[in-house]
Design brief:
Elements lengths: L3 E14 L2 E14 L3 E5 L6 H8 L7 E6 L2 E2 L4 H7 E4 L11 H11 L4 H14 L15 H13 L5 E5 L7 H18 L2 E5 L3 H7 L2 E6 L2 E6 L1 H9 L1 E6 L3 H11 L3 E4 L2 E6 L2 H14 L6 E5 L3 H9 L11 H4 L1
Parallel strand pairs: 3-8, 3-9, 6-7, 7-8
Antiparallel strand pairs: 1-2, 1-4, 4-5, 9-10, 11-13, 11-14, 12-13
């Protein structure tokens, strides 16, 4: 039997900025089961971080309800905090403190004995490859080491549910890949439910079993990455021709989901690899020679672009011509 780890109904949060009301989260309905790894995606200002702050009791909702780890975030915030871990975008540890000491202090703040806190810190230091640097001051650690220390601090009290807000932002590719591998390993070993926000679409695609796309404070899509890409965006076939006339003839025969630019034709179809051979045969029978052909699988940015006309990468309005 699965256990619902997060359930929200009509969750709303308004802010007042310069005497104007800003609707950061608007009527959010969301359910996340125990053991899931869910990525929240959306452009800047979509409401992702505000949603995390609501679910972690850092701010109170304007209206609606949210239950996290079996407790209401408004009526029993302490019980929620005991059962969750939260790693925000800033460093959690004091720069002048040693990493191991910060971990032990974190454990003590959750009621652990000194012996248990030390043992837990040692375990996490080993799990997150911090053994060589744990006794150095936080200010002397690299960006990747600090983020791994942040993860360790969030896991000190063995939470059932871990929130990660942009966990790899600012890291170089090597440290980013290392951190993500540690998150995968910890989840596999401990079965922790993880909810993360990220601007790295490949990160969400490769790590999350489920993607929730948020725009203007509302959920606009919720499914596995593969189904979102297949159902909402489709594959993209790109055909190149020797001249514009051939490209125009091919575009007229290809169907309605076609973009024709000079000697290139882009075609959006549900199953690109399966459709391409038949398409090439039809064009060949019509006497239209194709110079080159390729199939590109859709990205999560394509999904968002199809849903809203905007890009997840920049949060700006983008025309189809610009997207091509």
């Amino acid at each position: 039997m699965t256990t619902t780890m997060i359930r929200t109904r009509g969750l709303t949060r308004h802010f007042t900025v310069k005497k104007e009301t800003v609707e950061a989260v608007r009527g959010l309905d969301l359910e996340i089961e125990a053991g899931e790894m869910v990525a929240l995606l959306g452009p800047n200002g979509a409401g992702k971080s505000t949603t995390l702050r609501l679910l972690t009791t850092l701010i109170a909702p304007t209206s609606g309800t949210a239950e996290v780890a079996g407790h209401d975030v408004t009526r029993d915030p302490r019980a929620v905090r005991r059962r969750i871990g939260y790693i925000g975008q800033g460093s959690m540890a004091g720069h002048a403190q040693r990493g191991r000491d910060e971990l032990i202090s974190q454990g003590r703040s959750y009621g652990m004995s000194v012996v248990d806190a030390r043992a837990r810190a040692t375990d996490l230091i080993a799990s997150l490859d911090l053994e060589g640097v744990a006794d150095r001051t936080v200010s002397s650690l690299s960006g990747g080491q600090r983020r791994r220390l942040d993860i360790a601090m969030g896991l000190m009290h063995s939470p059932e549910l871990l929130f990660l807000d942009e966990p790899s932002t600012g890291l170089d590719p090597h440290n980013r890949a290392s951190l993500l591998e540690h998150i995968r390993k910890l989840r596999a070993e401990r079965g922790t439910t993880i909810v993360m926000t990220t601007h790295y679409l490949d990160e969400a695609d490769s790590m999350a079993e489920r993607v929730v796309v948020i725009d203007h404070g509302r959920v606009i899509a919720d499914d596995t990455p593969d189904r979102l890409k297949a159902d909402v965006a489709g594959d993209r076939i790109t055909l190149t021709f020797t001249d514009e006339r051939s490209a125009a003839r091919a575009a007229a025969r290809a169907g309605i989901e076609v973009e024709h630019v000079s000697r290139v034709v882009h075609i959006r179809v549900p199953d690109g690899p399966g459709r391409l051979p038949g398409l090439l045969r039809r064009l060949d029978r019509a006497g239209i020679a194709v110079s080159s052909a390729e199939v590109a699988r859709p990205t999560l940015d394509d999904v968002f672009l199809n849903l809203t006309g905007r890009s997840l990468r920049e949060g700006t309005f983008t025309t189809k011509e610009m997207a091509a």
